[in-house]
Amino acid sequence: MTTVRLPLFPLNSVLFPGLVLPLNVFEERYRALMRDLLKTPEDEPRRFAVVAIRDGHEVAPSAPGMPDPTALPVRGPAAGFGPDPAKAFHSVGCVADAATIRERTDGTFEVLATGTTRIRLLSVDASGAYLTAEVEELPEEQGDEAGALAEGVLRAFRQYQKRLAGARERSLSAGVELPDEPAVVSYLVAAAVMLDTPTKQRLLQAPDTSSRLRDELKMLRAETAIIRSLPSLPASDLTRVPTSLN
């Protein structure tokens, strides 16, 4: 399969194809990435690879830390990810296409990107101003009974939303039209349900759409049953709102 080298943007979250990714970019390594992306002609995609962090920190420490308060933080493109950054990331990620890159007066960037295709991380290069990676595209196979599974997942998702809205005493999706294409359904639900990063990562790297939908159907039913027994969910926004500083 054909491989390509892309800038790498590790996050403490999972990006799915078709989902929007807003970023507040302030670290120098990622500023350099955005400056290079701005050199790409406007009629060409400004692409970078997003991977979820398995072991490490999204933002590199900027002050002496523990246990030695005098130890200076490591700097550079791989700061916070150890001596072999490839081991710090999950191997399956998503290509992001930056539709908007706006530089602020202080040199930071406001970025709005969209996930496009899944990729597998083959190698990571830390020799430049920011991390780059050799990646290969992962085709999305539909699998068996994807259409019927998508219908079941949408029904279960609507029940989940209703239960969640009741627990939070407000509506989550009034008037929102949901898609019916199986792969799109599977990615939308994976991004929307309150799940931890390892679980979302498992959904991203599912072997096919049907497998992802089957997994989601089980989780939606389980989560809906849990919500039904809870009087309220006061902290649910904490698991849904992006917390990335970059």
UniProtKB/TrEMBL annotation:
SUPFAM superfamilies: PUA domain-like
Keyword tags: Hydrolase, Protease
GO molecular function, one term: peptidase activity
UniProt key word Phosphoprotein: no
Signal peptide boundaries: none
Pfam families associated with the record: LON_substr_bdg
Entry-linked InterPro entries: Lon_prtase_N, Lon_prtase_N_sf, PUA-like_sf
Domain Lon N-terminal: 6-224
Biological process according to GO: proteolysis
PANTHER family: ATP-DEPENDENT PROTEASE LA (LON) DOMAIN PROTEIN
Name of the featured protein: ATP-dependent protease
Protein species of origin: Streptomyces colonosanans
